Amino acid sequence: MNAMARNGLPREAVPSAFDTEARFYDRLVGANPGYHEHLRLSARRLAAPGPRVLDAGCGTGASTAALLSVLPSARITAFDASGEMLERARSKTWPGNVEFVHTPVEELAGIHGPFDGILAAYLLRNLTDPTTQLRRLRALLRPGGRIAVHEYSVGDSRRARWIWNAVCAGVIIPLGKLTTGDATLYRHLRRSVLEFDGITALARRLTDAGFTDVHTATVGGWQRDIVHTVVGTAPSEPV
To answer: How far is CA 69 from CA 27, 79, 87, 95, in A?
Structure first.
C-alpha cells in the first residue's frame, strides 16, 4: 500500500477528486476563518527577493490572489494538476502579469525558471514523494531564491491533533457532504493531515531537499500549530 493510499486518496486520484469538487471549492474555503489571510501571511513571509514568482498548486487561485496582494508588480506563474480547479482560477479577473499552466508538479510541463520565489500552498501533503518534488522546485529557483511551504501540520502537537479531529468531524466533513453531496475529499483531507509530517519533520524535509536557512512559523487563533509556513532558501552553490 503506498503512502497516499494509507493517508487518504492515492496520488493519482487527487486531481480528479478536486476536478469533481471544483465548483464548490471557493464557497467552502470562504467558510474557513482565516484561510485567505493565512495565505497572505505566507506570501509576506516568502519575501521573494525578485519579481518572478511561482505559485505551485494554485487550485482556484486563492494562493495566486494572496501573492498578488503582497507582490502586485510580480510576474506570477501559477500551475495546478486539476484542470477544473485551474479553469475556475482562469475564469476570474487577473492583471496581465499573471499566467496559469495546467501541469502536475511531477512534470512541470510549461514551467520555466529561474524564479525568485515559490509559494507551495497545501501541495506537499498530496504528493507521493514530497522531497523529490521539493528538489524539482528548488531547481527552478535562482541562487538565493526562496520557497514558502504553506501547509497543515499537526504531528508535533497533541492539542493541534485534537482540534483538527474535532473540527473535521464536527464541521469540515459534514459541511463538505452537505454542500457537495460527497464527503470523500474531506475525509481525505482529515486523514492526509493526520498522517503528514510534523512541523519538525517538514522543516527537515526542506533541508534534505537542499534548502538552507530553513525556518518555520505558525498562525494565530485556533489554528495555531495547525497551519504553518516553512521558508527555505536556494543555496548559492549547486547541491
So the answer is: 20, 18, 21, 12
Q: Which residue has the higher pLDDT, 39 or 8?
A: 39
Give the Cα separation of 204 and 214 in Å (integer).
8
Query: 18: which residues sit within 8 A by CB, 6+ positions away?
Result: 25, 59, 81, 82, 84, 85, 185
Q: pLDDT class for 18, splitting at 50, 70, 90?
A: low
Q: SS3 of 144, please?
A: strand
Q: How many CB atoms neighbour CB 236 within 10 A?
A: 9
CATH 3.40.50.1860 fits 3-234, yes or no: no
The CA R_g of the chain, rounded to the nearest whole Å, is 17
CA distance 32 to 38: 11
pTM of the model: 0.91
Given a contact cutoff of 8 angstroms between Cβ atoms, the answer to whether 91 and 113 are in contact is no
